[in-house]
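Escalated from tier 1: 4'-deoxy-4'-aminopyridoxal-5'-phosphate holo job.
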Amino acid sequence: MEGFPSKLPGVGTTIFTVMSRLAAETGAVNLGQGFPDFDPPVRLRELVSAHLGAGHNQYAPMAGLPALCDAIAEQAARRHGWPVDPAAEITVTAGATEALFAAIHAIVRAGDEVVLLDPCYDSYAPAAALAGAKVRRVPLALPDLSIDFERLAGAIGPRTRLLVVNTPHNPSGAVLSAADWERIADLLEPRDAFVLSDEVYECLVFDGRRHAGVLSNPRLRERAFAVFSFGKTFNATGWKVGYCIAAPPLTAELRKVHQFLTFAVSAPMQYAIADFLREQPAFADGQAAFYQARRDRFLALLAPSRFRLLPAAGTYFQLADYSAISGLPDVEFCEQLVRQHGVAAIPLSPFCDEPFRARLIRFCFAKDDATLERAAGPLLAIR
Ligand code: PMP
Ligand code: GLN
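Tier 2 regenerated the structure:
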């Protein structure tokens, strides 16, 4: 049937898919879509095989395998000092994407306003639109993509139901501080409003800083959904196992959506991750140093280039200013980069409502030395 109105008229194929496809077609080095080119830890893969062979192949409990929820709560307490009730506050989801979607649909009603900070991850706005919300976008402040609290205060009003925040931030790598969360609490506390904090890069905070998550702020604890992804923690983006931590009444509502969105998440993966978290609880702690070394390698390789590299405090992304190279808009520049120079990157405009105001593109440095070196050659040759 043709001619019926789309529920998401502005949505096409995501820029990540488009760029990965272009990279494959042209044989370019893919520093676009965010995924590591190394595997999850060997022991974790062994555990998956073991559980596949041990008959753990039927439905897991709807909210998540209790052993995994317990292990997540132990990690949250050990790594961040967050007291979390595994039975009432944790829901295991099909990646962070499902947790984000379920949280939005659990709390946002038709006609509510959802506030996003641009540039932001591409799944938030369509999820809010499908919930019938009006999306209000507040640009982050250049050059460091920090929150412009004056503009944010101006966007939050009586209809605001949800603010979506992301730290460490994709695509900039910026991280929030405890003081930022206090200011967010000041804005939300007087209202009937919630916060959805996307913390999928929680393990990837560099230079000795500590992750400041929403769950550390007692004023926000009762109105916060915090979302995480084992895809990032274990270099396993293809597994799509994530989780949401939220106060019991919020978790109860989130589970109502999760129950009918996926019902339950891959059982053998959950068994394996639960075992691995118990066997090697410190693995996640080592990821920051590992990725910081990747970042520093990439920075050193590109130092002589004409790109200006912005400081990245977290994530596995590096922003690069190309204004000394080209006056093209970012989407066109990325097309040229992949087709003429053989390197795929991600433009920032698809993370925003309007074309992005600065000449910035995003590289993913979650790659081994050989890949980074293969990308550096053509990038250095651009004069
Ligand atoms: N949020 C952000 C900021 C991301 O970068 C990603 C994907 N990399 C996700 C959510 C989705 O995570 P997942 O793959 O676990 O669904
Ligand atoms: N989160 C990944 C990124 O930012 C992409 C995920 C996806 O392809 N949907 O690159």
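Residues 283-302 form the longest helix (20 residues).
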